[in-house]
Amino acid sequence: MNDLLSRAMRLLSQRDHSEAELRRKLAAQPFMAKARFGGKTPNASTPVAEEPVDPAVIEQVIAYCYQHNWLDDPRFARSYIGSRSRKGYGAQRIRSELMQKGVDKERVQAALAECDIDWCEQAKQVAQRKFGDALPTDWKEKAKVQRYLLYRGFFQEEIQSIYRDFAQ
Questions:
Q1: Which residue intervals define the domain RecX third three-helical in the entry (predicted)?
Q2: CA-closest candidate to residue 58, choices 10, 14, 19, 32
Q3: 2-43+50-67: what fold?
Q4: What is the residue extent of each domain of the chain?
Q5: How many other C-beta atoms are found inside a 10 Å radius of the C-beta of residue 71?
Q6: Architecture of domain 73-114
Q7: Tens-of-pLDDT digits for all 168 residues of the chain?
């Protein structure tokens, strides 16, 4: 358990992880061959046999991390939302990424609801950063802006509000 706990501590000291993400990383083979052999790949005569990690031990490590407040899915979701929104991503994409990382839908919804981000303003800033202050008015260029913002994870209503506010 000590080996697994030290791996968990190392992973969580680098950044927050969701429970599912940490569980997956702990269940993976402990170290890659290059990491074990000082950056050098072992030759074919070096046997590298790995035992699978016992799920009961992983459960103990996860419980220990929760007890010491090292692992917290709501905190992870809040920090992830803040980080990704600062990089110009919308709520839809962030929601999808969090669910891929194993955070359940209710926690994602709760974290998005409690964050105080104006997604319409965020979409406007992202569009202006990419396309300049004067947003395009012709149909082809508008479609380009819309596609870009949809790709970044903004909802159609937020994108349309940019042009409504811009026209006024």
A1: 118-161
A2: 19
A3: Arc Repressor Mutant, subunit A (1.10.10)
A4: 2-43+50-67, 73-114, 119-167
A5: 23
A6: Orthogonal Bundle (1.10)
A7: 788 999 999 999 999 999 999 999 999 865 544 455 555 555 555 555 467 788 899 999 999 999 999 999 999 999 999 999 999 999 999 999 999 999 999 999 999 999 999 999 999 999 999 998 888 888 899 999 999 999 999 999 999 998 886 554
* Those residues with Cβ within 8 angstroms of residue 120's Cβ, 6 or more apart along the chain or in another chain: 158, 161, 162, 165
Q: Classify 77 as helix, strand or coil.
A: helix
Give the Cα separation of 110 and 14 in Å (integer): 25
Which CATH topology does 119-167 take? Arc Repressor Mutant, subunit A (1.10.10)
